[in-house]
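User: For a reading group we're discussing how well predicted structures match intuition. Take Oxidoreductase. Before you show the prediction, I'll give you the sequence so everyone sees exactly what went in.
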Amino acid sequence: MGQVTQKVQVAIVGSGPAGLSAAAHAAALGMSHVLIEKTDHLSDTIFKYQKGKHVMATPSNLVLRSDLDFDAGKREAILEMWDSQIEEGKVNVLYRAEVTAITGEPGDFLLEIKGQDTVQAERVVLAIGTQGNPNRLRVPGADLPHIQYQLDDPGEYFDEHITVVGSGDAGIENALGLAADPAQSNTVTILNRGDSFARAKGANVKLLEEAEGDGRIIVRRETSPSEVKPGELVLETRDGEEVIRCDRIIARTGSKPPRDFVTAIGVDFTSEERDAFPALTQTFETTKSGVHVIGALAGYPLIKHCMNQGYDVIEFLAGNTDLKPADQPILEEKFAPLPGRRSVEEWLDVFGANVVIFEELSPLQLRELMLDSTVSAFDAGDIVFTRNDPGSSMFAIAEGSVVVEVNPEDPSITVPIEQGSIFGEVGLISGRRRGATVRAAEPLVTIELSRNAALKLIATAPSAGRAVNRISVERQFLQMFGSGLTREDVAEIVEAGEVQDVRAGEVVVTEGADDKDIFIIRRGSMIVEKSIGGQPVFLSYLPAGSYFGEMAVIDGSARTATVKAAIKSEVVRFPGEMFLRLLDAKPDLKHRALEDMKGRREVSAFVEARKESFGSAADMYSETAAFLVDNGIGEATDVLLIDETLCVGCDNCEKACADSHDGLSRLDREAGRSYAHLHVPTSCRHCEHPHCMADCPPNAIKRGPDGEVFIDDTCIGCGNCQRNCPYGVIRMDAVPPKKPGLLSWMLFGAGPGPGEASYGWRKKHADPDKPKQAIKCDMCAGIKGGPACVRACPTGAAIRVAPDKFLSVTKLTEEVE
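Assistant: Thanks. Here is the predicted 3D structure of Oxidoreductase, as structure tokens, for the group to look at:
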């Protein structure tokens, strides 16, 4: 340990926005202090931002408390301003000083500095951030030299294929910077393992979507790196592996707190999760008395938040314990309609103590979350939302309880959801309309999290993600198996359930294996196949919401078939022995499982008995499975099929579609592919998890009560949905006025006549001030009688089926026989 040369009231470690603000306020108050920075410059995090980066000052409605100025602007201007103000304020800065250990007690802390003398301080403020500990890629080839975790100057790179890995603000900003100058001729791709950019600021997401629309950036959703090779990157997509050219990888996959250093001081974290943050009080004090944490290490990465914390922590140390956070007026206004006249702090205590998904959040994180949420109070009997209402937000119950009307024909049949739990998570996950009416069972207080806020919470708070997963798995299990089961009945098996991501083509269950687990499909779909003569034969398709694996569990046999993912999917794995105990305790459930198993045994026996008749079984399998997956049937909820043995080519289906939609047909009968005698025309599949909904800025794409995916009048014509649809079933078109009726056309020549209006007529009559809108099949939602294409077919050739019924429609077994 070196000699003590500085004795101060407060030592501030780290000169990011939080540390700078704290040091500037300490200097302004005349408090003896030292700002310790391990580099030779201030604010290393912002210093390492890419050249010319525009720094945002969000949230815009939050007042800035600091002796330093800050507003949105260029990185260089902000750094120059802070350097000047720190010098003018006579802040005591110790550069090139790396703190290696902090020991002692309040009033007498010793900060050991590598190669320098020791600093003695009465209090310590850690503002060290997390950027020095980036999360490294964990895939084969991650040690190759063309991977970098920092982008200093986007203008240095020319004529390269560059892939940015990471969907937060840093990744988006790097991608935008690399694609900003067309003269650089870079091909820029950004990977997002999810389908939305929940971690990023709305303004950044909008800029990215504009760049995607202009063709400057390739955005790959539901895609992650699988292997890095020289000059190539292997991608894991929802449809399987894909290889792209890649000269350089910019990995912006977040960072983690320097946990070993912090825990060695005596500071506890909220959990053992690698991404957890230190446990803090309202005054930023840790479990080690006298040590405070602010900034990104406290879970507050936004610059304005960090600067406010720096100011506030010095005020607390100076004895101003009555100081309220800068967001206090905003939260007071937000909480004012709630009952009981409680203070903001009292309500935050209630939310943190009562709601399971908030249980590991610090008061500081909870405050930030409340800024993006809506709190509401309901009287007993009030409706929170109604079946078929649009909505993708999630609700948490802070006080009271709700009942869910599970039977639309009889509102008296309900299921309760108790205080502390959540509801609305189905809309959050699937994007579907509300599946049931929910009303208050007693006086109720809820917190409604917007979809982005909920997804961000799940992504950044491990405990919240676990809680949402457990609750959604429990409800899916109860909904699927029913038979009078209660939460108590399934508690053991749900607790043991393990959510697993499955790559497209990945095998989940192998024929002949002796494992004994049961699986539920949460997302995606599965293909079931059986080996005949050493070749795989396609048996069936399992959509999301199905289960499999029960046959080997119930009768103890080896697996009778192989089950693998048709597309990138998510399954929940349950231990077989627990499922058996549940069956033994619930005869009705066992009866249902045995009936399901009987049907599957019959299909397997049919194939086995006729194995000599199959001829080239491999060809049959590959053609069937490839057709299902390539044409989107493997992820569809509704498919339009045309039986080519019955179709007479009259085009009544197209004309009826156009006449039902103001002269714009939603299908192309001749386009598309065929299998056997069935043709799949170009018409929407109404995917279980629609690609088109992933990036719709006005949220104009909704899901109806029957699963139909439709586009409402708020469409702004951005074209994101058209680009995201892999099946080419969405087009952008000018919307003409409503066509005159058939009688008006016949008698007076008004309008373009039956069927789709010509392009010339649409162009002539369209409103030039209105942008083009996205046009796609909506399953004739709201039109009496259902889909017009089916009703208009004179021969019955046009039919709409769910994908799990596709094979029965093809009459595959008859062809085999």
